[in-house]
Amino acid sequence: MEFPFSASKLPLQMFVNNEYVDVENPRKLTLYNPKDGSLVSDKVPVAGTEDVDLAVKYAQAAFPAWRKVAPAERTKTLLKFADLLEEYYEKLGELTRLTLGSTPAFAQMEASVAAQGLRYNAGWIDKFAGQTYPEADGFLKIIRNEPLGVTAGIVPWNGPLVTIGLKAAPALATGNCFIFKPSEKTPFAALALGPLIKEAGFPPGVFQVLPGDGSTGALLSSHMDIRKISFTGSCATGKKILEMAAKSNLKRVTLELGGKSPAVIFDDCNIPNAVKWTVDAITAGSGQTCFAASRVYVQEGIYQEFMTAYVQAMKDKAKVMGDPEAPGTELGPMVDRAQYERVSGFIQRGQSQGKLLVGGPRVGDKGLFIEPTIFAETDPKSEIHTQEIFGPVSVVRRFSTEEEIMKLSNDTSFGLMAGVFTQDINRAMRIAAEFDSGMVGVNCMSLSFLNAPFGGTKESGIGRECGLSALLAFTETKTVMVNLTY
Ligand code: NAD
Fold first, then answer.
1. How far is residue 182's CA from residue 159's CA, in Å, rounded to a whole number?
2. For residue 304, how far is its CA from the centre of ligand 1 (angstroms)?
3. Strand, helix or coil at 253?
4. Which residue, judged by its Cα, is nearest atom 17 of ligand 1?
5. Going by C-beta distance under 8 Å and a sequence separation of 6 or more, which residues neighbour residue 480?
6. pLDDT-derived band of residue 140, with 50, 70 and 90 as boundaries?
7. Domains 14-257 and 262-449 alike in fold
8. Domain limits of the chain?
9. Architecture of domain 14-257
10. Top mutation candidate among 222, 234, 414 for ligand 1, by most atoms within 8 Å of CB
11. What is the atom index within ligand 1 of the atom nearest the CA of 234?
12. pTM (predicted TM-score)
């Protein structure tokens, strides 16, 4: 297959019913490359009402046949699509890098996670059984898991393709039609999926991609014929989507939102291991990850030793920040000027809320780079300690007792990820149970697995992705009661 898109030939149409079509909405967006500010395109389309309606109409038409496609056939289609994602990852990654400022290694990781997600869910297709309850009372109860119909995924800019594996894969595996809306900041890889979708063998209308910003997301969220939104993004947008779902047709909603995840590091931990995980977990994606280790709590006995190593490791990360295309680069710029200004603002204001230990100023005079930054002894009520910054910025505090630090760890509106670093298995288990979060790492953090539920408590979200949870989230149970005494 000849892949038709590149940096000089961007995909600037929507992909519906297995065809590229111009959007009706005349509004266009402008995107720049964050590594040098150069113009990428001023013709990025935004799907409007008619465009969304058209995609939904095609999906509705495709659903009755797709839900009945034999499991072997559906499995084959998902597996083929997974192979194609890996085959074309470099070209897709090039399109993402234009506006995300990510590295080539990120492109490979993204395609690989998306492909593994497709394979994982494809494997479930002929194993996703229902349940039965015995007929001792005269009635046999059969519990069926049925697809919802037309579903949609609305996703952020920091992992444009990863979300294919997390959202499209379980949606399609369980027999739903799926409309994918990438972020307006990183739309090109998603918009370029059309040839791969066709080549994999998805029937027209089953898997469609719509470009657009929040206005397109709002049209999807309030659409009367969309039965589910699976959303990843900010808490503020998640709340709006939940409201739109409630005000329209009470569509099902999964929300994967933000975090301010604590790493609790005890005196008896392996310090190099704790440093490695906490540094990686705040610098991956230049800190633009939902489960970043953005609060670091260190017990007083090892505070100085840990901090010396932590500060040095963060300084070392600054040395591998730069042009994402250059060999050896691990950290790229912030995604765009708005994000850069936002993170810079936090750093500027943070200087009256804690002690700036390292980082802060931008790297060089070109591009939207922020150095890995640490604030120490921050006021626990301050903005920098409580709000999601979404950049390579951590806050650190020392603590003495387990009781004190668990109280502070859970004193947050978020609950996505938490980490505990200790060699004491009893303490680790006790603390893992005490964290009010959807995920806990013991001697690790900020990681996820396709077969284990991913998601947060409190304002970090509703529902779980990955594992069986994802398949259940894209289906509705139906109870069939059979009267055996009749
Ligand atoms: P965002 O909420 O601004 O945008 C996310 C998506 O929602 C985009 O596609 C956007 O177009 C769309 N959108 C915006 N307004 C909308 C509206 N009113 N109705 C419907 N859709 C709308 O988030 P972002 O800035 O792109 O991403 C950063 C956020 O995402 C951070 O808070 C981060 O923590 C979170 N995130 C969470 C996870 C997770 O799995 N928990 C993963 C990655 C990112």
1. 9
2. 37
3. strand
4. 214
5. 141, 142, 143, 144
6. very high
7. no
8. 14-257, 262-449
9. 3-Layer(aba) Sandwich (3.40)
10. 234
11. 32
12. 0.94
